[in-house]
Amino acid sequence: MEKLVPIEMNINYQHYRLNVSPIKRLLDVLREDLDLIGTKECCGIGECGACTVLVNGRAINSCLMLAVEADGADILTAEGLSNNGRLDSLQEAFLEKGAVQCGFCIPGQLIAAKYLLTQNPHPTRQEVEEGMAGNLCRCGGYERIIDAVISVAEKGEKQK
Amino acid sequence: MHDFEYIRPKTIDEAVSFLDVHGPDARILAGGTDLLIQLRNNDIQPSFVLDLKNIPELQTGIQMKNGFVSIGATVTMSELIMNPLIDRYFPALIDAAEVVGSVQIRNRATLVGNICNASPAADSAPPLLVYGAEVIAVGSKEARHIPLNDFFVRSGVTILQKGEFVASIELPVPRKKMGAAHVRRTRRRGHDLASVTLCCGVEETGTVRLCYGSVGPRPILVVDESGVLADERASEEAKAAIFESMFAQASPSKKSMRASPAYRLAMLRVLGRQALKLALERLHEGGK
User: Fold this and answer.
1) Is the pTM of this model over 0.90?
2) What are the residue ranges spanned by the domains of chain B?
């Protein structure tokens, strides 16, 4: 019989104490146990980026991390981007630039973009391409996704 | 995923004692970017997964100690890329770490894990071999210092014994001025496994250290002391002859999906010239 492991995490600024099965991935716990279904499962082998979340500020594939490994971690998922119903500037930009087609990859794209901009607030187009190479969009909406990320970086510049 | 128990030791001793008893039924977890895929696909069904990330003795990061730069078992590819010591002395290792997977993968995948998986296509293997890396293995007996060139056996197999694991990798700070560069060939830009990997290091004395991977069961390291490759006045024919003898050990598999043997062997020649050019540029820029 599987032995449940007690863990604690902060997810989207909220504290959770959970008993998780060691064979559950972080992705499974987010989606199945906590109903945070913004984070998607697609390839399951770390190639598509649909399950991207921030763990202690770093973008990772939640399909390649056991939930027990996240014990003590701070986690941000797409649900945590908006604040009291106000969309994050990246979410606004994705809407404005028409970057969302079917929408399935978008939560992962947003988190990957969030991470990219914290590491490099003013990326070139090529740096956005490189930084988001781990997020596939089967609709092929890459150009508009990149436009959206760059528009946020440019707005940040103007505010300064 | 098959049932397993999650073990989180706090010391190296604790991990070693556990592996002594349960070694064959346990798998070691660091970054997990390969292990989780094997678990998910039920390619492996261990009874225990032993996570090394909570052992302070292994969280040594990247540090300089008497002429060596030591890289601990939990150091990720992203940490490697951003480290000033690695940038200063081992830039070809950064070339390699930068092309491993995607950002998400690099934020989790460890250098030590890349070596322990012993994939012939491991991006970090060629630069580590060119720089003369040693592996520090711990187990129930005394810790062993193993030259990386003796560590790899064949695809997926290392000389680690039952219950042993790698605590760190040590790189000697080059004594002579050296330029080195790592290049690779993939089917698509972005993240993909390499069809051919190659690292070239040129010392100021003209000695060339070349290491190539993904063209045989393990990466191959060859050294040429003739000085011809670094000699600007040497003819292209003379250089090609040296390269030919250096590539003699390449034996790409016919079964691999990623590229045919003929393609890999042809690309090896292209990458050899490309990496040599970059390495010489770096040598002339003052050694990097």
Assistant:
1) yes
2) 5-51, 60-172, 178-284
